[in-house]
Design brief:
The complex is a heterodimer of chains A (116) and B (112). Chain A has 116 residues and is mostly beta strands. Chain A has strands spanning 5-7, 10-13, 19-24, 31-37, 44-50, 53-57, 64-68, 74-78, 87-94, 106-107, 111-115. In chain A, strands 2, 4, 5, 6, 9, 10 and 11 form a seven-stranded mixed beta sheet that branches. In chain A, strands 1-3-8-7 form a four-stranded antiparallel beta sheet, with no helix packed on it. Chain B has strands at 4-5, 11-14, 19-25, 32-38, 45-50, 54-58, 61-66, 71-76, 85-92, 101-102, 106-111. Classes of the chains: A mainly beta (116), B mainly beta (112).
Chain lengths: 116, 112
């Protein structure tokens, strides 16, 4: 059973460019969340998708946008990249949208984004 | 704004001893509390969660929650070198769509 898979594993971009990161949830999962983890910090919640809609959003600017597809996979798009966007981007999946959603959360291995 | 505070460490503990990791939080509306382990260069792995005051045990791990003091802790008994990692404390407000709010993590080193 494949877990949460993310692609690419590493990415190098320059300031001002745009980037798209991809995530396939664990089999049986229908909820996808994205987190940003800067070096030496804990992950920060970006947003969560369920039934192809953004359900909750953290304190991130509109440059960060996402999408969920009918097969539950998801994309994270970041426009106008800044040096400060350099981080590990983690996708996490779960199922349902209830109090126990976070209790069933599984993280992918992440995409390491470097902005030069 | 929710805040989760952890001592960044490193916390050094001899092999076989009890490691005690602590976390405080600011939002009294927080409902569920999570402990994750993250090895260097890897993704976070859930160790356990707790949402009622008191202790919850799972093998060598015990989570303790005190909502009045806004304090949650993780005890690791019989610490092993393989327990060396960063331990992240996280919480949510109990809503299904809530993202987790994480602390910065405590770096734990188990000395053989």
């Amino acid at each position: 059973d494949a877990g949460v898979t993310q692609s690419p594993t590493h990415l190098i971009k320059t300031r001002g460019q745009q980037v798209t990161l991809r995530c396939s949830p664990k089999s049986g999962h229908d909820t996808v969340s994205w987190y940003q983890q800067a070096l030496g910090q804990g992950p920060q919640f970006i947003f969560q998708y369920y039934e192809e809609e953004e359900r909750q959003r953290g304190n991130f600017p509109d440059r960060f946008s996402g999408h969920q597809f009918p097969n539950y996979s998801s994309e994270l798009n970041v426009n106008a990249l800044l040096l400060g966007d350099s981080a590990l981007y983690l996708c996490a999946s779960s199922w349902g949208l209830d109090r126990g959603t976070n209790e069933k959360l599984f993280f992918g291995s992440g995409t390491q984004l470097s902005v030069l | 704004q929710k805040e989760v505070e952890q001592n960044s460490g490193p916390l050094s503990v001899p092999e076989g001893a009890i490691a005690s990791l602590n976390c405080t939080y600011s939002d009294r509306g927080s409902q569920s509390f999570f402990w994750y382990r993250q090895y260097s260069g890897k993704s976070p792995e859930l160790i356990m969660f707790i949402y009622s005051n008191g202790d919850k045990e799972d093998g060598r791990f015990t989570a303790q929650l005190n909502k009045a003091s806004q304090y949650v802790s993780l005890l690791i008994r019989d610490s092993q070198p393989s327990d060396s990692a960063t331990y992240l404390c996280a919480l949510d407000s109990g809503g299904g769509a809530d993202g987790l709010t994480f602390g910065k993590g405590t770096h734990l080193i188990i000395q053989p």
